[in-house]
């Protein structure tokens, strides 16, 4: 009987100790969550194939929100283009930005899967790190990177973003946009200089992009980071639309621009063409 009481006491102590430890751990870990953002995303996940439109009341109840909070979230999402409301039925449905996010995610996954083996072969052939990116507005977004020989001082990876106007990847994609689309994006470009070599005049960038279209590849000569050169080529889909680009970066101390264009640019361009072909470009 005594042993039983002692065992019970030990279990109680153990339970209290465990609770205290958990409390200390939770207190030691700061919360980085943004509740308003979480609620907004929760609202977006309420829409599905079965429920493509929802009323304010349905959203309020499903998300367990009061009416005022629900309305503020819906108003914000609508103003930013993530939701749109039918003026007649007053029901909400996903906006263009949600669709764009979905298409971008699907396209990026497919592009990454198709391009990966070609990117690995390119990195091995030239003995340098090769990268794959997509264009988001006026920014280059890295979605894959095969590390072979990094350029010292430049640490980027999937998810990293850099200005398109001063990157070889960006110029490779901008150059092959439809003229109207290119003009629209350049209208919004502030041409912020990253180095003294950054192209900051629109006419000069347009001339550079025209040369990229002729050559089939672009060059970044210390326009983003001093001491860094890179060369990139566009990836086209079955409709001839640019969907991404690949590049190889080198140190200016090791390779001149002339050598870069002679020995590496053709390999990058040929690899981009192979990836484009794999995506259906030029296939009858």
Describe this structure in words.
The protein is α+β, with helices and mostly antiparallel strands and 284 residues long. Helix content is 49%, strand content 17%. The chain has helices at 2-28, 35-44, 56-62, 67-79, 96-126, 168-174, 179-187, 202-215, 257-278; strands spanning 83-85, 92-94, 130-136, 139-146, 161-163, 218-221, 228-236, 242-251. The strands form 2 sheets. A 6-stranded antiparallel β-sheet has the order 5-4-3-8-7-6, with helices on both faces. β3 and β4 form a beta hairpin. The radius of gyration is 26 Å and the shape is elongated. The model is unreliable at 6-29 (pLDDT under 50).
Spell the H/E element sequence: HHHHEEHEEEHHHEEEH
Unreliable runs? 6-29
Number of helices, counting only DSSP H or I runs of 4 residues or more: 9
Strand content: 15-25%
Whole-number radius of gyration?
26 Å
Category by helix and strand content: alpha+beta
Main β-sheet, spatial strand arrangement: 5-4-3-8-7-6
Shape: elongated
Give the rounded overall mean pLDDT.
85
What's the total number of strands? Answer: 8
Taking the sheet with the most strands, its summary is: 6 strands, antiparallel
Distance between the termini: 86 Å
Helix content: 40-55%
Quick tags:
alpha+beta, 49% helix, six-stranded antiparallel β-sheet, single chain, 284 residues
Per-chain topology:
Elements: H1 2-28, H2 35-44, H3 56-62, H4 67-79, E1 83-85, E2 92-94, H5 96-126, E3 130-136, E4 139-146, E5 161-163, H6 168-174, H7 179-187, H8 202-215, E6 218-221, E7 228-236, E8 242-251, H9 257-278
Antiparallel strand pairs: 1-2, 3-4, 3-8, 4-5, 6-7, 7-8
């Amino acid at each position: 009987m005594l042993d039983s009481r002692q065992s019970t006491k030990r279990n109680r102590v153990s339970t209290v100790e465990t609770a205290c430890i958990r409390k200390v751990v939770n207190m030691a870990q700061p919360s980085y969550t943004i509740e308003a953002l979480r609620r907004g995303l929760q609202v977006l996940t309420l829409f599905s194939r079965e429920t493509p439109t929802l009323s304010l009341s349905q959203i309020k109840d499903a998300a367990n929100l009061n009416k005022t909070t629900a309305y503020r979230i819906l108003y914000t999402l609508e103003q930013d283009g993530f939701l749109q409301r039918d003026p007649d039925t007053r029901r909400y449905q996903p906006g263009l930005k949600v669709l764009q996010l979905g298409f971008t995610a699907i396209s990026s996954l497919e592009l990454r899967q198709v391009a990966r083996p070609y990117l690995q072969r390119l990195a091995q052939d030239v003995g340098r790190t090769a990268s794959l990116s997509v264009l988001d507005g006026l920014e280059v977004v890295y979605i894959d990177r095969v590390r072979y020989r990094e350029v010292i001082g430049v640490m980027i990876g999937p998810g990293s973003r850099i200005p398109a106007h001063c990157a070889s990847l960006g110029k490779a994609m901008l150059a092959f946009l439809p003229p109207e689309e290119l003009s629209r994006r350049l209208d919004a470009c502030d041409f912020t200089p990253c180095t003294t070599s950054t192209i900051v005049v629109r006419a000069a960038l347009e001339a550079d992009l025209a040369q990229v279209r002729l050559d089939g590849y672009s060059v970044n000569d210390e326009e983003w980071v001093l001491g860094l050169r890179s060369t990139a080529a566009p990836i086209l889909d079955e409709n001839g639309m640019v969907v991404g680009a690949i590049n190889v970066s080198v140190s200016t101390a090791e390779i001149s621009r002339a050598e870069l264009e002679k020995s590496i640019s053709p390999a990058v361009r040929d690899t981009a063409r192979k990836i484009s072909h794999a995506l259906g470009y030029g296939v009858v």
